[in-house]
Specification:
about 450 residues, eight-stranded parallel sheet, 17 helices, about 15% strand
Length: about 450
Amino acid sequence: MHYHFVTGRLAEPALREVVLPLAAEQGFDYSIGVMPITVAALITPRWLLRHIQVPTEATAVILPGYLEEGRDEIEKELGVTVIIGPRDLRQLPDHFGRREPTSSVMDQYDIRIIAEINHAPRLTWDDTLRLAEQLRGDGADVIDLGCDPANRWHAAGEVTRKLVDLGFTVSIDTFDPWEAENACRHGATLVLSVNGSNREAACDWGCEVVVIPDTPGDENSFFETIAFLTDRGVPIRLDPILEPIGLAFTESLLRYARTREVFPHAEMMMGIGNLTELTDVDSAGLNLLLLAVCQELGIRSVLTTQVINWARSSVRECDLARRMVHYSVSHRTPPKRLDDSLVMLRDVRVREHSSAFLETLPQTLKDNNYRLFVQGGLIHLISSGLHLSGSDPFSIFDQLLRHAASENVDASHAFYLGFEMSKALTAATLGKQYEQDRELQWGHLTRPEKHHRIERRRKRK
């Protein structure tokens, strides 16, 4: 293979630094076409076709990532394979070494998510419907109506019927036999939960029920209720109860394993909110670990909530996690390099420019536009003949205003620099990849930014 890499004048030295060892490692020939433009991100398909010259020996042309929308047009005109590379050239090694996952990696799963609407009796119908639609959109298979133990919910049947009529699968979380019976009569398919206190009434509901012990850890009452309901033909799902850290968490996990041993073919459920809602830590990692336990033990449903702020995206996290652990367990491989949607606080990898590149860049530039980089935990602001660095954006900006080139810093430009340096400081603090004029990556929570200078300038070309 002979790859012809296309870039602008500004990125040429950095591209050569990356491609030289990459070509030696991958065993391909290459050439670099430097377009008569400073910033490669400003290249448009039509402009490129007027200026590009492809060597006859090239078997493929690799273009900057900003040209993905024009790939087909460019390939047709050039008559050679066109590959759209990453937007950040430092990611080229990943681009070449990327293992394209099969379509089944994130498509298959067998764990169902039951998402609870807490304190449902306190909500208006409009709020209930809004939450149900949000939870279903995030991946919930069943909408669970959480009742209030202190007061009977007389609208339980009516709200259940409305949701079922709109296509939702509904469960109800109550120990009140009247609420459970009314919800089941109007379409609920599951009742959470049944123990020695309400198991006799459960025989008349005609609905699957979740069996729990009378108190956490009381396996005798748990097994008694299982036997009682089984003898009477009531469909059951078993939940030994997950306990919070500090209250026999490890022992409760072992009870799930013992339950699976005793009942190898029974349906089981794990209520995971006791960990995610009661632990001062971001919920994504906990959700993936708990879903992994469920996958390995054949627990095919989880009950989750997203009330506390650090667990506010738990349903979406569980949806992503169940897909990862299904692939991992099915293929006996760690859930690594499958999908980075749950890598949110930091990035999968951070690639920096060389120190030599940053040191020589001020002499290479011919304009006073400002480029921002994060290197070695510091923010670097560079333009023609200027290189400022530090960990405090306010200090960097003060230095800039004292520099002669600062005459081009009007209010709009100052706001832009402040916005970008704020992102750069966040990246430096957390160890994230920073690329000027691009959004920081937060996994499945990433918010695309459409308002950058480069995007606006490209549209005017």
